[in-house]
Amino acid sequence: MKIVVDIGACDNPEEVVRGCALSLQEDSSTNLIISGDENFINKVLSEYNVDRNRLEIIDAKEVISNEDVPTVAIRRKTESSLVKAIDALKSDDVMGMVSAGSTGAVLSGGIFRLGRIKGIHRPALAPILPTLIDGKEVCLIDCGANVDCRPEYLVEFAMMGVSYMKTVHGVQNPRVGLVCNGVEDKKGNELSKEVFARLKALPINFVGNMEAREALSGDYDVLVCDGFVGNVLLKTVEGTAKMVMKLLKTSIMESASAKFGALFMKKAFDKIKNKMDYQKKGGAPLLGVEKIIVKSHGASNASAIMASINQVKKMYEGNLIQNIKDGIATIAAVEENNDANS
To answer: Angle at Cα 6 formed by Cα 116 and Cα 170, nearest 5°?
Structure first.
């Protein structure tokens, strides 16, 4: 089985190719297809000793940029690296795709060229965030793919998040929280109130409403919200982390005693830095489409691309797509039973 990697429209295409080369060197079972400028790809690969028998290159010099209208570009730029990568993804011998390109284009391509899982209204992006508990992470779904949502979308997000945390992260009974402006059952707007009632009716471990300040507490495994709220939450977490680290660095540099003390804290600081480093987490899976897609950060380095490739493997080995289909079937069965009893 192969994994296709799109190198177009990202900040560091050279790093993406390097990540592919390192993945090939690290695991002899890895088989890759790289979609992009063939001359550029070969130039970067010449720095590495890789098994060319486990590598294919799709020559695609056209790029869908962040300035393009995603839905239009996916239809018109058929020679682009992303479109060619998605077309390759349709093949039975390709398990998934990694792209650090335009998020909108990856989303549009996943929906319009690949297709949604039957029963899914809207695919969603589901990044993994660190928590206060060592070794424990939390899935945020949706983080920006769908800014305007109906209740059924969020119910599907919850089920997809549960499937993802079970199959990929080994959480047996994921605790699901609904991002809200208060923990009380009656809190929230009309959307969250209806979603709350629907989630309570499902056979999942729904633990109720959750305030954003508890997002990284470790008390939850899946955080459910619409893409507008999720994107604000994600960017707030990122911005706060950067601010704290910058303030800490500034304070240390202000005095000799602080610098001296920092030497004794180096291991602790390194641990915090590693915990917050998104480059080691891989990317955000686009859940709800017919094949596995991982959207990596646009500025991903080689390590992040390697991590994203490993993500695809874990999702495939865990049979994630079928687990999501089973979860969506459960929603349909519960709602059909509720309608019959009402």
So the answer is: 60
